[in-house]
Design a protein that fits this description.
Transferase(Phosphotransferase), domain 1, two-stranded antiparallel ribbon, about 400 residues, 12 helices, single chain, 11 strands, alpha+beta
Length: about 400
C-alpha cells in the first residue's frame, strides 16, 4: 500500500482560515497575495485531481471468489508466501502423480474438492486434494490447512507432504491412508468390518491426536469438524485425524474460555452450545468425538432421516438408551459376542460424558483418552480371563445378545 497522505478540501480551508490575523499582509502586499492564492488554487486543484485518480485506481476491489483471489495472487508470485516453502510441489509433479487427475484414481469427494490417489516420482504414495471453483471451502481453508499441518507432527495426525498454488489451482498433498476412513469400516461401504478391539484402538488413537492438538502451545488448536470421515486409517489401521481446514486457534488469554466465531462444522456432530452461542471451545471437539464414539458402537450415521424422529439423531437416541440402561440394545449386531460388559459400560459412560449439553460438564480430551484406555484394558483383561475360564470350565464372560436384543433401528 502507498503511504502518501492527501488533505481534503475542508482541511485545507481550515488551514487557510486559521492563519493568525497578526500575520496578514499589509494593503500594499495584497496584490501579491491574490496572485499567490490563485497559483495556490491551481496547485490544490492538481492535488485534488491526483487524489481522485489515486482513489479510483486503488479503491477496494469487488469481492471475488477463492480461485479469482488465488489467480490474482499467483500472478505476482506464491499465493502463500509466508508458508513453509519446502512444502511447495510443482503442478507438473502432481499431474504426473495423479496421471492428470485420472478419474480412475478418484478416492473421495468433499466440500473442498476431489481427492485422488497418486505416486510421486520418488515412489511416495500420496492423496492429492484438488480444490474446485465455487467450493464451500475456499482459499482461507486452504491457508489454514497448510498453516496448521506445517507446524505440527504427531503419529495420530495426517501428515501434509506439500501443496500447490499454481495456475489458479489449490491442491493439498497428504500421506496416503491405505485403509480409508473410519466410517468406511462401519457402514454403507464394501470395506471389511472391524472387530471391537480394533475399534477401541482406533478411538484411542484419534483421541491421542486430538489431545495433542488441544494441549499445544498458545491456546492449542480446535479442530471444529471431528467426524468419522475425518479419522483416517493407514495400512496398519493406525488412526490419524485429518482435514484441518476449519480449525481455529484456542483462546490465547488464559482468562478466556472460548473463541467467538461463526458456526461451522457438520450437522449431526455440532456442539449444541456452540450452535446456540457461537462460542467455540475445545469441548466442542469433545462433543463431536462423542458422536463418533456412538458411530463406532452402533455402526450407523450421525443423522439418518429414514428412521423415526426419535431415532434419527444418533446423539439423542444413543444418550437416551445409555441413560435408560439399554446400551446393549444399540450395539452393532456384528459385535455381538465380542464385548465384555464392563468394557461396554465404561465406553458408554465416556460417550455420555462427551455428549453433555453444557461444555463445562464434558471431560477434556485427556480425560476421554484415559477412560478409553481403561475400557480397552477391561476388554483385554476379560479376553485373557475368558480364555482361561474356557480352558477350565468352557464358560465365557464376553457379552452375548439374543436376536430379540439386537438394536432396534
Amino acid at each position: 500500500m502507498y503511504q502518501q497522505a492527501y488533505l481534503n478540501g475542508l482541511e485545507i480551508m481550515e488551514m487557510i482560515g486559521s492563519w493568525d490575523t497578526d500575520l496578514m499582509p499589509s494593503e500594499g502586499d495584497q496584490v501579491g497575495l491574490i496572485i499567490g492564492l490563485v497559483s495556490g488554487s491551481i496547485v490544490l486543484l492538481r492535488i485534488f485531481v491526483s487524489a481522485a485518480i489515486f482513489v479510483c485506481k486503488y479503491r477496494k476491489p469487488k469481492r471475488t471468489s477463492s480461485h479469482s483471489k488465488l489467480t490474482e495472487l499467483t500472478t505476482h508470485g506464491s499465493a502463500v508466501p509466508n508458508f513453509h516453502l519446502g512444502l511447495k510441489i510443482p503442478l507438473a509433479e502432481i499431474h504426473f502423480a495423479t496421471n492428470n487427475f485420472d478419474g480412475k484414481l478418484l478416492i473421495g469427494k468433499g466440500g473442498f474438492g476431489n481427492v485422488y490417489r497418486g505416486t510421486l516420482r520418488d515412489g511416495t504414495k500420496v492423496a492429492a486434494k484438488q480444490g474446485k471453483p465455487g467450493s464451500g471451502q475456499g482459499f482461507s481453508e486452504f491457508q489454514t490447512e497448510i498453516t496448521v499441518l506445517s507446524q505440527i507432527r504427531h503419529r495420530h495426525l495426517v501428515s501434509l507432504i506439500g501443496y500447490c498454488a499454481e495456475q489458479s489451482e489449490m491442491i493439498l498433498v497428504y500421506e496416503f491412508m491405505e485403509k480409508g476412513s473410519l466410517r468406511d469400516h462401519l457402514y454403507n461401504s464394501d470395506f471389511p468390518t472391524l472387530p471391537w478391539k480394533q475399534r477401541l484402538e482406533i478411538c484411542i488413537g484419534a483421541a491421542q491426536g486430538l489431545d495433542y492438538l488441544h494441549r499445544g502451545a498458545a491456546g492449542g488448536i480446535i479442530h471444529r469438524d471431528i467426524k468419522s470421515t475425518n479419522v483416517l486409517l493407514d495400512e496398519n489401521y493406525v488412526a490419524k485425524v485429518a482435514d484441518f481446514g476449519l480449525s481455529k486457534s484456542g483462546p490465547l488469554d488464559r482468562s478466556q474460555t472460548h473463541v467467538s466465531t461463526a458456526v461451522k462444522g457438520t450437522f449431526g456432530y455440532l456442539d449444541p452450545e456452540y450452535f446456540k452461542t457461537q462460542k467455540l471451545t475445545k469441548k466442542s471437539d469433545v462433543y463431536s468425538f462423542g458422536v463418533v464414539l456412538l458411530e463406532v458402537l452402533c455402526a450407523r450415521p450421525a443423522i439418518d432421516p429414514s428412521l423415526p424422529r426419535d431415532w434419527a439423531n444418533l446423539a439423542e437416541w444413543g444418550i437416551t438408551c445409555i441413560q435408560n440402561g439399554a446400551i446393549e440394545q444399540i450395539v452393532d449386531p456384528f459385535l455381538v459376542g465380542q464385548i465384555n460388559p464392563n468394557s461396554l459400560r465404561k465406553y458408554g459412560e465416556v460417550a455420555e460424558k462427551c455428549l453433555q449439553e453444557e461444555d463445562e460438564e464434558r471431560p477434556s480430551m485427556g480425560d476421554v483418552l484415559w477412560d478409553l484406555e481403561y475400557a480397552f484394558q477391561l476388554q483385554q483383561t476379560a479376553v485373557k480371563r475368558e480364555m482361561y475360564d474356557y480352558s477350565v470350565t468352557g464358560g465365557s464372560s464376553i457379552l452375548t445378545l439374543s436376536n430379540e436384543e439386537a438394536p432396534i433401528i
